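Sample 1 of the test manifest.
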Amino acid sequence: MAGRFVDQIIKKRDGGELTDEEIRDMIDRYMAGDIPDYQMSSMLMAIYYSGMSDREITTLTLAMRDSGEQVDLSSIPGMKVDKHSTGGVGDKTTLIIGPIVAACGIPVAKMSGRGLGFTGGTVDKWESIPGYQTDMSMESFFELVRKHGISLVGQSGDLAPADKALYAMRDVTGTVESIPLIASSIMSKKLAAGADKIVLDVTVGNGAFMQDLDRAKELAKRMVAIGDGAGRETVAMLTDMNEPLGHAIGNNLEVKEAIEMLHGRGPEDLQEICYALAGMMISLASGADGEAAAPAGADPRLKDKLSYEQGIELAKEKIADGSAWEKFKEVVASQGGDISYVEDPSKFPVAPCYCELKAESDGYIGWIDTMGFGLAAGRLGAGRATKEDVIDPSAGIVLHKKIGDEVHVGDVIMTIYGGSPEQPGKPRYVIEENTQGVAVDLKKCFRIDKEKPTEQPRIYEIIR
Ligand code: URA
């Protein structure tokens, strides 16, 4: 329906609804180079101000999904449930949840992204295990899922290319923070990745994309509506990101913490979030009939519909009986990783330079600038500012004290790990000498209060 695109810009600018045909045409023509960037940036701003109805968002999502390759997981028996987090600091949940869910016999075919911005993405975490391959053909990926019930790889470059193009435009036009555009961006990639059902971890707080609970809830509702509208049952969990998840931030530091968790020794907050997300995935996968029924060898309890709470119990059981840990090792070995590192995590390289930040007063940790921690970890080498940057797998921060913890003068609040080829083995940032550097910034990223702060929930709401 080629025509004057400016008419659709005006319609949206004035609060009108675009037809399905207009939306599909917009994406097709933009990808074909028939709509110039200046017009698309104007349309994005019109959407930013005028919003979109659920129907418009769903159509936009499906048009972006259809712009590239779509993974067809139908040849893998069983119900495939995907999990996606809108991001946070210290989020190593995929490394833990994937093996838990696979240990139940639910197939896990998961593609994750690389980090750009501050801390590394899930792919960077996997790659901190020497030898682990995240880059493989679709055939090899499927083969691993068939053989081991699980494969955790990097995202193919061909999923939803229209989202990639639009995101690049949003990034430079001040239109990233539009709920319809965020919802369609995330869901276009999730739908293209082929799972039957989707669990969304929508993080909220000062380390998350959404800082405000009402906006996070709105985003979650929109994404659930898109998933359901596309015939993929979707559940969103609103989880707290007002402090890093767990203690470790940085790639091999997070892998080591994930290994602890898989042995049942994870920090309380990480345990709660992992069990909740895994429990929801198990619940969604259970009770299916026909081709989606749990494959041979799966936990027999999956034959019946399990509640979320029963799913959590099953997830806990898979940690307690060691089967999730065995599955984790199977994943690492099957993807070329050196299993000796995960069996003996002391083999992982430790950053040559480190320092400790200590409490200078008595009290309780009352506030944490979570994004500040993420940015600091990035500067230490745990993340990349440009695609070409090389990650230092051992760089990052271990936060020993979290919100609500009591501290006394001299207690170590955090250990900061970085690399410095010039001074191997020596602390790079020595806070006592008041040197400039990451430690100085991190000192401003937490506060010690006299009063113990009131406890906040870790899971605010579940949206179905
Ligand atoms: N993550 C995405 O994939 N897209 C957005 O728009 C925001 C976060």
